[in-house]
Amino acid sequence: MKPMRSLAALAVLLLPSLSAAAAEVDATLAWAGRVELTTPVGGRVQAVQVDVGAIAAKGNVLLKLDPRPFDARVRAANARIHGLKPAWEEVKRELERAEDLYERTVLSDVELQTARINHAKLEAQWREAHADLALVRLDREYSELRAPFDALVLQRLAEPGLVVVNEERAEPLLVVARAGHMQARAPVPLGELLAHQPGEVVKVKVLEQEYDARIVRLELEPRDGGYALVAEFPLAAGETLRAGMPAKLVLP
């Protein structure tokens, strides 16, 4: 037990010195919330409504596929439901009559069972038709690519006329990041990493400017010579920074 106590004591002594030595560490800027966007459905791109550098509010349409095939499927699904409706309503009435007659001992067990089977068959078709309608409506919704958050467009990988085929592998059509936010990523020694917690307030220095930031992630695996400590900070309206720019992360 004594060697373990000695190691623990050494770690306690080292932590303050590590923290003091790494009060200001080299960092690299990265996009906040970078994500590749695509559609889970295929089709021909009708319009791309944003370009690189554009900012789109959450929910805004960024890209549209040709809506005609999707609209046609919605109409077909609706038509199927309208076609089934009279038979579905009739089979419900037939079952109600059969159960009433059976209660009055006018109908046999076999006849009641037949009415129930007919009802079950039509009910299955009715439910399947509504499920198909829900799916084609969802496909129609997916044919429009919308901003998942207030987004800065980083890459435009599609143009009108492009045929999107996503049956086996979804190819990205746009790459976006969270607008008005950046991250600073700094590789630090393990001892420094363990001295901090997500949510802690730190400072980021970029091009002689200083920003208030919060630690959002402490990575678990080492790379680039240390364990990445990631802090996020907001930008002023209209301010532009770029991923890859050098920065300094000032740790308390």
- CA(first)-CA(last) distance: 33 Å
Spans where pLDDT lies below 50 across 5 or more residues = 1-22
Helix percent reads 25-40%
User: Per the principal axes of the C-alpha atoms, what is the gross shape?
Assistant: elongated
CATH topology heading of the largest domain? Elongation Factor Tu (Ef-tu), domain 3
Tally of discrete structural domains: 3
Radius of gyration: 31 Å
Please tell me the CATH architecture of the largest domain by its name. Beta Barrel
CATH level-4 homologous superfamily of the largest domain: Efflux pump adaptor protein, beta barrel domain
> Beta-strand percentage?
25-35%
Number of helices: 4
Q: How many distinct beta strands? A: 14
**What would you call the structural class?**
alpha+beta
**Which oligomerization state do the chains in this entry correspond to?**
single chain
**H/E element sequence:** HEEEEEHHEEEEEHEEEE
- CATH top level of the largest domain is Mainly Beta
Strand order of the largest sheet: 1-10-13-12-11-14
Overall pLDDT: 90
User: For the report, how would you describe the main beta sheet?
Assistant: 6 strands, antiparallel, barrel
Description of the molecule:
With 252 residues, the chain is α+β, with helices and mostly antiparallel strands. It has three domains: 17-32 and 180-252, Efflux pump adaptor protein, beta barrel domain (Elongation Factor Tu (Ef-tu), domain 3, Beta Barrel), CATH 2.40.30; 33-67 and 144-179, RNA polymerase II/Efflux pump adaptor protein, barrel-sandwich hybrid domain (OB fold (Dihydrolipoamide Acetyltransferase, E2P)), CATH 2.40.50; 68-142, Helix Hairpins. Helix content is 38%, strand content 33%. The protein has four helices and 14 strands. A six-stranded antiparallel beta barrel has the order 1-10-13-12-11-14. A four-stranded antiparallel β-sheet has the order 2-9-7-4, with no helix packed on it. The chain has a four-stranded antiparallel β-sheet with strand order 6-5-3-8. A hairpin with a 2-residue loop joins strand 12 and strand 13. It is elongated. The two termini are 33 Å apart. Mean pLDDT is 90; it is low at 1-22.
